[in-house]
Amino acid sequence: MKKNIDARGMGCPKPVIMTTKGLDSLEEGSITTIVDNEIAKENISKLASSKGYDFSVEEKDGDFYISISKDGSEPVKVKDNKKLKDMTIGFSSDTMGSGDEVLGKILMKSFIYTVSETEPYPSTLIFYNAGVRLTVEGSEVLDDLKALEKEGVEIISCGTCLDFLELKDKLKIGSISNMYTIYEKLKDKESNLIIG
User: Fold this and answer.
1) Cα–Cα distances in Å, from 142 out to 138, 145, 177?
2) Candidates 3.30.110.40, 3.80.10.10, 1.10.490.10, 3.20.20.70; correct CATH number of 2-70?
């Protein structure tokens, strides 16, 4: 069975949600999602890759056609990393707590250092709103985040937040993601922690 999903003109996370629903309703076959922007193309490609599906991307007249094949078998699962705990930490700010901003930055730096030095590590760190400032050029915690990424910790930053704060070109660690992925990461973990 073949399905086409036209998600042109739609903002994050609608193209990913439409593609996910299409894949869920399909036992075997392929889906082609059409989008008109680079971010949606990347987000759908990451979705297909994370699920273990074969996919291809073709550009035509400024639109992207992402074709995803589903053969009916179970997607490939990633090998367990014993150093990681099934836990997500979300960072909504570049400071910890409210009150004094200088103190908040000191506390955040100390918290991320502690995370980088304590096993098991969380499997995912999510940065959104002002928290994305921790993953860009000039951040004082980049070395600690790089050490965590080297250990297998997934680091993702909200693409909408990076765009809004005009920081997308300054991202130095991890990958850009979307609200659908952020929600999936937060809802499917044993335990979660939100810092901000």
Assistant:
1) 8, 5, 18
2) 3.30.110.40
